[in-house]
Amino acid sequence: MSASLTWQLIFDGLASGLVFVILAAGLVLILSTSRILFLCYGAFYTIGAFGTWYPMHYLNLPYFPSLIIGVIISTVIAMLSYLLIFRRLQKVKGGFIATLIAAMGLSMVLNRGGLLVYGTLPRSIPTVFPGSFEICGIMINIDKLALIIIGCAITLFLFWVYEKTAFGRSMRAVAFSEEASSLRGIYSTLIYLLAICLGCALAGFAGGILAPSYGISPSMGNNILWSVMLMVMLGGMDSLLGAVLGGLIVGQILSFGQYYLGASIQIYLFLFIGVVLYFRPNGLLGRGIDVGV
Amino acid sequence: MFTNYIKSHSRFIVSMIGLVILALVPLFITSPYYLDLFIMMIMNATLGMMFIMGMRVGLINMGIIAFWGVGAYASAVLSTRAGMDVWLCMPVAALITSLVAFIIGAILMRKQNTGLGFVMLTIVIGLLFNILVGNLSFLGGWNGIPNIPPPNPINLPFLAPIEFVSKVQFFYLGLFLFLVIILISYCFYASSIGRAWSAIGISPQLAESIGVDLFKYKLTSFVLSAALCGLIGSFYAHYQAYLLPDYFGMWQNIYVQIYVFLGGSAYAFLGPVVGSAVITFIPEFLRVTGEVTPVFTGALLVLLVLFLPEGLLGLGKYWPAAARALAKISSPLKRKAGQT
């Protein structure tokens, strides 16, 4: 294979990998803070994409305001689901299983109910930054370049929130020990709510910004859910840096594998991550989350 | 003394009555469509039981359908490609499934990684199983395996041979396998292994401190439940005579949780039967169309976890209080009736 093809595949993998990073980071925020295995995460990705498509199609809004509307819709649904369902279940004994089952039911409602709302047709959004240029034999789509820039910006923003702000500190404190943090005056329910809203907003945002280049279909959330989970497993469930690492690695593997091996790369990816987890059960950078099952 | 016997064996007696009623079903219901529903109910109840077997030791196995599919595909391939006798295929499929489960379980549960990581990896297995099968041309790809033979006729002395031509024979075969699976799992629950399982379920740390090997017993539970899933999966392959990767999608796994939690997860045998009976027959009576049903089922699961965490059978504990309240209400009425 030629060098330019390799660089082309690395570039494409980077573009999708940075969006995977956003998705994985959102799931890590939810998992490490609230310890709810948020299986309906994929549905929020779909909601974000369709929430961007509807205003563009029916109200003729430009792309960026509709993206904001999509993010707001997925955030509001996430907030309602936490307030109505998960807040009650977290407190009971055996709460982990209860939240897991509720998340499964909710994912079924959101996915299949979504199918009734959106219909089964795949949709598409016109590209926002058309055109491409060539450097050293690599075709660079400006759209994908924009994805890389937005992905980097969001990742840096997340690190700033998680490491520097008071909200990030409280999230880390709640993740470390809920009881000890509530002794210091941190209202843990609010932190859970904000973490879940932030995570689902990120999922909706990722769905919205991927929509122009990859298209929209009702099953997109489920198709991406397992790869996001594999990334989170690979990087470590309680480490934001691990999510970045996992997203980038999986993005590259999928980019190269889909070129050389086709769809069966998914199986090889799973086997590869199984081997990694055999040697490091908590992922590459994680310390492990203890849930009382 | 007789009432004492009934009280101490009430669950056993209820299950026996239920089995007898199930065995009499083909005498009254001749429509193949309803018999098909009954067969599916029995199979779904088995899958639910296997989920509960894993849950006893704290393993939330979200990939039950994948092991079911391994059994079905192993049996289908052995009988169509290798021409093996179907009666031999069923135990061999169970063995293959248990081998697969042993390898997967030994990797997943290493260093007692049985909490969140185990759940997520089994979910990924459940999500990936139909992709894996769809991409292997040896297993028929996305077109599936057609023409899976039914079991050979059973030749009984002095009687006509039993041939598997209609749903009635398959119903009795399914019921027989159901009984076998219940007996096997009951033997395990009643033995020392079962006591170790419930000890782990109550408190893993306490169980480990008195010398219960967590890894060994959790792996036993995982492998046994997978093997029995494989057995019923093999039955499913020969019953349907056609396998598609789409039968083993992720939604099926969610249905297994619904069977378990609707019936009550504390009831290892009766709970899944009640749950799967309700889920299988209620949509039929209500005549709900197929598109809307999953939404209602998902909502039902959420509502169950929120408001009825012990399931329908868990309502039984309110029965004495309800009976007392009824007696209280009715007693003044009786006295009044006596006076006048």
Please explain how this structure is put together.
Chain A has a domain of 203 residues. In chain A, strand 1 and strand 2 form a beta hairpin. With 293 residues, chain A is an all-alpha fold. Helices cover 76% and strands 3% of the residues of chain A. Chain A has a two-stranded antiparallel ribbon. Chain A is built from 11 helices and 2 strands; from the N terminus they run H-H-H-H-E-E-H-H-H-H-H-H-H. Chain B is mostly helical and 340 residues long. Chain B has one domain: ABC transporter involved in vitamin B12 uptake, BtuC (Orthogonal Bundle), CATH 1.10.3470. Chain B contains 14 helices and no strands. The longest helix of chain B is centred in the C-terminal third of the chain and has 27 residues. Chain B starts with a helix and ends with a helix. The chains are: A mainly alpha (293), B mainly alpha (340). Chains A and B meet through helix 3, helix 4, helix 9 and helix 11 of A and helix 6, helix 11 and helix 13 of B.
Explain briefly what this protein structure is.
The complex is a heterodimer of chains A (293) and B (340). Chain A is mainly α and 293 residues long. Chain A has helices at residues 3-34, 41-58, 63-91, 95-118, 142-164, 166-176, 178-183, 188-214, 220-235, 240-260, 265-279; strands at 132-135, 138-141.
What characteristics describe this protein?
heterodimer; A: 293 residues; mainly alpha; two-stranded antiparallel ribbon; 2 strands; 3% strand; B: 340 residues; ABC transporter involved in vitamin B12 uptake, BtuC; globular
Strand percentage of chain B, roughly? Answer: under 5%
Unreliable segments of chain B (pLDDT under 50, ≥5 consecutive)? none
| Mean pLDDT over the full residue set of chain B | 84
Beta strand count of chain B = 0
Report the radius of gyration of chain A as a whole number of Å.
19 Å
The strand order across the widest sheet of chain A is: 1-2
